[in-house]
Amino acid sequence: MDSSSENIRAAGSPAVPVIDISPFRDGTDPDGVVCQVADACARIGFLVIEGHGVAPALVDRALAASKQFFALPPAVKANYVADRPDRFRGYFPLLGQSLARSTGDGAAPPDLREYYVINRVGIDLTVPYYSDPAKGTAYSPNIWPDPADAPEFQAAFTDYYTAMEALATTLMQIFALALELPRDAFADKIDRHFTNLVAFRYPPLDREPAPAQLRGGPHADFGSLTIVHGDPIRGLQAWSGGQWHEVPEVPGTFTVNIGDLMAQWTNDRWVSTLHRVANPPRDEWAHERTSLVFFHQPNFDALIECLPSCQGPDEPPKYAPETSGAHLYRKFMAMRVT
Ligand SMILES: O=C(O)CCC(=O)C(=O)O
Ligand SMILES: [Fe+2]
């Protein structure tokens, strides 16, 4: 089987470990957590975390607000489409983008999903770093739904974003230690991050999808790490060891996966794993899936180059140094279908 094969059912996945990170957060056994995370990042690039400290009510509010927004008529949702395609904010209609195109497959069909994107909250975007024209649309203000259309959306997403930002900071500290670096080694690369938080809706299927068309085509993520709150409606699958593995979506947990920039930093010692959102089997076509995904993205001008600790005499850097911003925009623009 190759990674483009269209199987729906994947292997169960003992390969993706469930890791309780509370001993790191409360300081009772930080090394134990660091070891488990290092192993998962090197082996499969996916882990499921519990003991993260994010209140379930925050997740529930963000999910409820997403569902309320997506239930609006298409003509209303269209009011929230950004004014230009490289401004990654607001509403993206069904069939407008293709994840697989980001991997160079320019003919891949569009993904079976719609979504809503927000970026930084709680900071002053008029300060020179953020308003600098050289940063393009990276630090554009958010597009918020009118409260008349989705009353809880802005508050729920602001709170969820803030919680994910704190969790990502903790994870980047765990990552630094797992790479035998000081705990704050990444701090000055992520203090002006431009992370997208995206609510995805994968609607029910009402017909056989086109050949190779999936809810989310095969791709690797673009940033440092991704934090996914999935749904009981499964579908997230990771490619490893020559087969697709179902990523366990355990209630109360988050799935974390490594993105391209972490692979570039570590010279592929850690894997930015190919993954996809598979279509449900025929008898589950009526089930829709809603996910909340935090795509942690280092500072726009952070130069991502092989960490000295990941470079040996026989391991020259595999990737040319590249900024976080350049990498992300290259990938974003490749995903466009319409
Ligand atoms: O919706 C999901 O669960 C994950 C989607 C995904 O992998 C992506 O958009 O990069
Ligand atoms: Fe992804």
From TrEMBL:
Its EC number is 1.13.12.19, 1.14.20.7. PROSITE patterns: FE2OG_OXY (PS51471). Residues 189-298 form the Fe2OG dioxygenase domain. The keyword Hydrolase does not apply. Keywords: Ethylene biosynthesis, Iron, Metal-binding, Oxidoreductase. It comes from the Bacteria. The keyword Iron applies. Pathway: Alkene biosynthesis; ethylene biosynthesis via 2-oxoglutarate. InterPro entries: DIOX_N, IPNS-like_FE2OG_OXY, IPNS-like_sf, Iron_ascorbate_oxido_reductase, Oxoglu/Fe-dep_dioxygenase_dom. It catalyses: 2-oxoglutarate + O2 + 2 H(+) = ethene + 3 CO2 + H2O; L-arginine + 2-oxoglutarate + O2 = guanidine + L-glutamate 5-semialdehyde + succinate + CO2. PANTHER family: 2-OXOGLUTARATE (2OG) AND FE(II)-DEPENDENT OXYGENASE SUPERFAMILY PROTEIN-RELATED. Belongs to the iron/ascorbate-dependent oxidoreductase family. This is 2-oxoglutarate-dependent ethylene/succinate-forming enzyme. It comes from Nannocystis radixulma.
